[in-house]
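Why should sequence recovery work at all? Because a backbone constrains its sequence more than one might expect. Tight turns favour small or flexible residues, buried strands favour hydrophobic ones, and helices have their own preferences. The token representation captures these environments compactly. In the example below, the structure is given first.
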């Protein structure tokens, strides 16, 4: 059964089919919510906000119109708005990483110093993404983590495809600029030294 058929059946009273619709999108929505929250060290709320997203979607399903957007785009939009609402509520009380209990994990086979370096890089990238304006941050998460295409991202963010491409370009440029001092500085030193000889 397609999403459209399921939704039609649910609207006609077969509400038990909503669990089938949920199972199709639960992992993707949870991953999206998790990545949106990660930049604020609030990953522990991901499951709750994912559940809230599906609850809101169920309550509003009667108003969903396929001519306006695909179900997945509509669902991602609800998830994004749910996360943004929670972030606004929590904005004044961000928990520092040390207190959050969340530490990026490196593969076990790596030597301890590689694990530390990798953790630092993960934190630097996360912080760089966290520093982006909200629309750029959402766009880069949807593209890089959720692997959505430009059209889907445009629908979720309420932007044109060209605006999404522009948002992604600016986001990537900003992240690169923020990370350059950490990742590229050693490459410049020997080069500068050779130039002076």
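From this structural description, the recovered sequence reads:
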């Amino acid at each position: 059964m397609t999403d459209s058929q399921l939704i039609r059946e649910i609207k006609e009273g077969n509400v038990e089919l909503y669990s089938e619709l949920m199972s199709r999108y639960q992992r993707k929505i949870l991953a999206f919510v998790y990545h949106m929250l990660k930049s604020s060290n609030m990953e522990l709320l991901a499951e709750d906000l994912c559940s809230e997203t599906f609850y809101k979607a169920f309550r509003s399903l009667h108003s969903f119109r396929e001519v306006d957007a695909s179900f997945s785009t509509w669902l991602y939009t609800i998830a994004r708005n749910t996360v943004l609402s929670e972030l606004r509520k929590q904005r004044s009380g961000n928990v520092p990483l040390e207190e959050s209990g969340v530490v990026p994990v490196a593969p076990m086979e790596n030597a301890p110093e590689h694990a530390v370096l990798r953790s630092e890089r993960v934190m630097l990238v996360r912080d760089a993404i966290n520093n982006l304006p909200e629309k750029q941050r959402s766009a880069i998460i949807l593209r890089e983590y959720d692997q959505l295409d430009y059209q889907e991202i445009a629908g979720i963010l309420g932007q044109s495809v060209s605006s999404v491409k522009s948002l992604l370009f600016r986001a990537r440029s900003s992240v690169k600029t923020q990370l350059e001092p950490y990742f590229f500085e050693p490459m410049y030193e020997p080069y500068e030294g050779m130039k002076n000889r």
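A few observations help interpret the result. The CA atoms of residues 41 and 100 lie 7 Å apart.
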